[in-house]
Amino acid sequence: MEKHPVYEIKKFNCKPNENDLYINDFKSHLIHHDFIENTHSHNFYLLVFFTLGTGLHIVDFDQFEIKPGSFYILKPGQVHSWQLSEEIDGYIAFYSQEIYNLYFGNKRIKEYPFFRSSKNSPEILLNETQARELKKYFDILIDENIKNEYKKLDKLLNTIDSILIELARIYISLNAHTVHPYNLKINALENLLDNHFKQEKAASFYADKMNVSLKHLNRICKDVLNITLTDFIYGKIILESKRLISVEGKPINEVANELGFANYSYYTKVFKKYTGLTPQNFKKQSHF
């Protein structure tokens, strides 16, 4: 199976000194970079705001319907592809974690609520008023990006941050995304899981690392995510399995070994439990 690409910002920029930031209207972007419709991932943050047209956006194997007002916020490593109508238009912006964190000092990009958990949806549907207000910010980005004026980078980054603030306010206001007092615990759990999931799959390991009881950590997962701690751990493993099988095209036995499963049949059993398919059948059915 063909391995799918992981893009860097410099893939989209002509100027070598602008490899941490990219801004464009979507129609112009697509003219020169139509390869983005195929499955890929990237090592930067991505904002996409659609103002015209329709289509489908597949993100980490979940499908979203594109329409005017659709806004997508993607983190590094997420796998996605597009199916777009001919009249599609809007705005697109890329920025690296490094440029954001360096510029804003103690403020960190991951503090925004839509970046706190992998369970958060990458899609926000804007109403007409919200879309109109956010369009003003993107028009500023497009206009400023064309110019070469004093403190251009400052204005671009501050405008991007203003967009993130407006999106965070919308995100928090939605009932489905109410900020929960346990969110910091979930964020800490995700950081641990990112570092240890290939070696450690026992729920007790993560509870011990966080200095909380297994019962309490399981209750946090149920309260915030409505799943058990074990399901949260294996959800990460299954998503990574899908990426390795479909996106990187690795043989299934290599995927099992990379994810720390010494017993191949047990890996197959776990995969089928959480997906309803064997890894082999998933690979056959995958459109990535």
UniProtKB/TrEMBL annotation:
Q: Does the keyword Transcription apply?
A: yes
Domain (HTH araC/xylS-type) spans 187-285
Q: Which domain of life is it from?
A: Bacteria
Which PROSITE patterns is this protein grouped with? HTH_ARAC_FAMILY_2
Q: Which UniProt keywords apply?
A: DNA-binding, Transcription, Transcription regulation
Which terms in the Gene Ontology molecular function aspect does this entry carry? DNA-binding transcription factor activity; sequence-specific DNA binding
Reply yes or no: does the keyword Ligase apply: no
Which PANTHER family does the protein's record reference?
ARAC-FAMILY TRANSCRIPTIONAL REGULATOR (PTHR43280), TRANSCRIPTIONAL REGULATORY PROTEIN (PTHR43280:SF32)
Name assigned to this protein: AraC family transcriptional regulator
Q: Which organism is it from?
A: Flavobacterium cellulosilyticum
